Each structure stands twice: as structure tokens, then as C-alpha cells.
Amino acid sequence: MVVEADGNGPAAPATSGDDGGARTAEGVQGPALPQTGDRRVDEALEALSEVRSAPLSEQVERYATVHRTLQDRLADLDG
Questions:
Q1: What is the pTM of this model?
Q2: Among 11, 17, 55, 77, which residue's beta carbon has the most beta carbons within 10 A?
Q3: Is the distance from CB of 63 to CB of 50 less than 8 angstroms?
Q4: 7-43, pLDDT tens digit by residue?
């Protein structure tokens, strides 16, 4: 995961302490996934957390799928 400090400079690797995070597919300690209470959103966040472990050729489609899911959910909330 990469975090921009101010949005203008180069990105720096994110760090995390012993905050009860969950292990990722790469075995790196990361923050635990938030639970939103919305099953579809929670599933999309879970899929998003697994993108980095997918082959590069599949990552764009996985990001697009998560994006569509979240857009659809927002549209459902609008009415």
C-alpha cells in the first residue's frame, strides 16, 4: 500500500504498528478491514484487499469490478 503525504510529492510506503491489523496475502501486517454493515460493500472491500496478490494481468479488471460494485451500491442509495 502507498500513501501520499501531501498529494504533491512522491509516495512513501505505508507503515503500521501493532494495531490489531490483519495479515494480507503477502504476509504483511496491515490494518483490519472495516465492517460497514453493508454486505455488498464489505465484500467489495475484501476483494479490494486481495487485488495485490492477483497476477498483474487480472488487477485492472478486479479494480474495475470493485469500482462498479461500489458505484451500483451508491446508486441504490440515491433512490
A1: 0.57
A2: 11
A3: no
A4: 454 444 444 444 455 544 455 556 788 899 999 999 9
